[in-house]
Amino acid sequence: MEATKIDGEKGKKLRFMTFIIPVFAHYFKMNEQEAYRYLKKYGGLDYLNECWWALHTDNPFWAARDMLKVCQNNGGLR
């Protein structure tokens, strides 16, 4: 069976998302599972999904900070 290769925009988006979630976890002192659940619960993943193209051009710290602000605006406490 041949593995499916993800190319184009979907591939770039997926690679960025798998990069930025661990970065977010590191900056805000969470493990990766906690970071994923936090982002999912408070809208950070939705924001990431919609705005990844702009976020990927920024410094990873500022991208993670923007995601945190979205979560805080939606009730996240960190």
Task: Draw up the topology in text.
Layout lengths: L7 H20 L4 H10 L2 H12 L4 H14 L5
Task: Please outline what is shown here.
The chain has 4 helices and no strands.
| Radius of gyration, CA atoms, in whole angstroms | 13 Å
The proportion of residues forming helix, as a percent range, comes to over 70%
Number of strands: 0
Distance between the termini: 44 Å
Main sheet: strands, sense, barrel: none
- Which structural class matches the secondary elements? mainly alpha
Helical element count?
4
Mean pLDDT: 93
Q: What's the SSE pattern?
A: HHHH
Shape: globular
Low-confidence stretches: none
Question: In percent terms, what proportion of residues is strand?
Answer: under 5%
Describe the structure.
It is a single chain. The protein is mainly alpha-helical and 78 residues long. The chain has a domain at 21-73. Helix content is 72%, strand content 0%.
Question: Can you tag this structure with a few keywords?
Answer:
globular; 4 helices; mainly alpha; 78 residues
